[in-house]
Amino acid sequence: MIRFHFAIICISACCLHSASAQLSTVVSEPRQTTQPSKCAPGPWGELEYYPLHLEAPDHISDLISSPSERTSWHFPGKTLEEIDAILTAALIGETDRQRIYSDSNVDLVDPPYRLYPAADIVESMNSLSRQSLYRHLSPWSENRFHRHPFIIESGNVRSWFANSELSLETILHVEKLTYKLGNSLAFSDVPAVLTRINSDKEEREFLRAITRTRSLMLRMTVSPESDFPALKKYWTLGRKGKDLMSFFDSISQTTDVEKVDAIHFLPPTPRKYLNTFPSLSLGMEGQYPGHFWTSLNFGRFNPLQDFDNDEYATMYIHKFLHPVEKPYQFGDLVLFFHPVTHKIIHTCIFVADDIVYTKNGRSPFNPFMLMKLEDLMGRLSIIHAEPGVEVRRKIE
Amino acid sequence: MNIRFTYLCLSPLLFCMATALKSGDALRDDKPNSFRTQNTQPGPWGIIEYSRLVLEPSDHYIKLSTDLEDPSSETVWAILSDSPEGVCRILADAGFETDKVASLTSSDQMVQNPATGWFEITPGEKIILEMTSEQRSKLYPQLQPQKPENPFYQPFALPPGGIREITTTPTGLSERTIGLIEQLTYSKSRAKRFSDIRLIFSETESYEEKVRILKVIGREPDLSARLIVNVQSDLPSLEKYWGAGGRNRESLPMLRSVLAAEGVDRLDIAHLLPPTPRKLIHTYPTPWGYGINTDMPDCFWTAFSFFSDDPPDRHLDFTTHVFEERYESALPPFQFGDLILISDAETGEWIHACNLIADELVFTKNGRSMGRAWIISTLPEVVDSYFNTEKVRVSLHRLKPEFLR
What we know:
heterodimer; A: alpha+beta; 7-stranded antiparallel beta sheet; 4-stranded antiparallel beta sheet; 35% helix; B: 16 helices; disordered N terminus
């Protein structure tokens, strides 16, 4: 079994300054590249991709329960002394700390403690303070936006929200409230931004915009020089992909098509869902599809609902898929596991080079998408500091 | 093509359309071999660029063909008649000259099969090659047995441009073989048909070559289509069109994101299709796919399932009540996903159904067979393919608003 561990995304005092320097660098990147990025050459052919920012459609974004503009920090199980140490480590000054305690009436309430910092205090925190404090808040589900912060993989807030209906003022406000998380930027202070929004329309646009997720539009460049037999072998998954062969042959014999969207190389089920948010019908079984369902149904024409059961899915993986080493193949299962318990925390499908097909969570706000493996690692590292990675393939 | 339903419906406006189609005014006059990347007319759908693809059924499917069960057998015409004179009348009505009728019905060439009672004629290569398109179109539908495996009763359906339209890419066949298929192709109204597979097989030397022939004859012209994205792209208009009044809202995030992404100049139409056609486009049915036992999805299943998240198996049974209760006549401007029904103008029988994508592009599955793919085509091509009666009607229908998802 080959397992490799990715670097720990840790936030320690010694690296805060360098992180800050990186932050200023990434935020000043150009708005948007106009040329596609290229994948490394390989048996998958000549691939290029554009980043896409998928935003939940209205019927899903309307499901977002608008939070109060009053920020709240929950500290279940912590004493006031422990909380004070956490805030102090997050560089929140004595005066501000006392204001927070006073406004939160900590002397009058029983634990678990909830703090209600004023908006000006939240806004005055710098990125490093947020990194430090929000790391402590993230384990508790009561801290909704800290547990599941909005991730801006590009590290560029302005390009992330480009072409949204948000005002520049709001975008700049979000930018100011982001913090570094792995190789990405994160944003948790939804209530603080709401304090500056005065129109219902912009508030709805804001709540929709923060559902944005970066996916990829992947294309293959084909020409008469392309090695079509090799490409066909890679993308058709052997027997399982034979319904794609006619399309492949057709593409190989025409000179009129130079770029082929990778959606056509996917098996029927992922082709059906790529770059879409789950429809309501997918929740009819009582829950929306998660990563197991998405990965294990990749090559199945008719998805098997049993894969929504984590226990069954785990049993299936261990029984029917065996670990493999590089070179990885299209359709291989990439699984991420807890370094100590070895419990599977996420799965996705290897597509080509460093691109995977994934659904990052059960929520209807999580689309079926393509992602760079390193970006996915960054997301997983938010909760699981050092996930192990293993690649498995179906036993024929 | 299975004709299963009887329905007569046509608005005056669409009657004009049907008439225009019959007279050929609305049909593309491009030569099949000259197909190059083209653009649709601009419209609320934007501008769509499309290129020709040619799909070919898999070896696996072709090798199941009954045509390969006895590939060396000679062509035999089996005619149901109560007497040899009746056979003569059938041949004469098909346009054979008197001396040829006499020759074909002589005891040298015709015998009566004691098991079936059919008169069986062995016409020979010369007669078959000399036949006109009209003679084939009159005689072949009468030949026994009246079963799908009989290529005279259920001929191979070629595209409107004939075999040349699907041999623009390498075939592995000789020019002589392709020329023979072209010579033996006949017209049934506008539709092109081919039945003389036995004669073609007699010219071949190997099983593999016969498989190649069946694969080439089974080819289907398809289109690869892409929405052109540029600074003129009007997002609200595009959202309104492709969202189809809420029926296709899952595709809108992708549309929005692509329009917002600088550098992207084309969006494959597959991304804009609803879930079911997106899952099926450019592929053939498979035994592990949709369908029950040997009952496979056909054009009606496809058309009525266009906006379904999961196509109901019920559409394999019948769809008349769905049509009657859920659909209404569609008036211009026509919309994405509108159901296009092609029917026999005389009898009202349903012949084919497909769905409008944009301009003249449609999503269609031409037949129930596993050898027919889900493709993008143009409406004139589809109409020509099914124009095998005196007059066809084309009508457009739309889900009633109360069936919005």
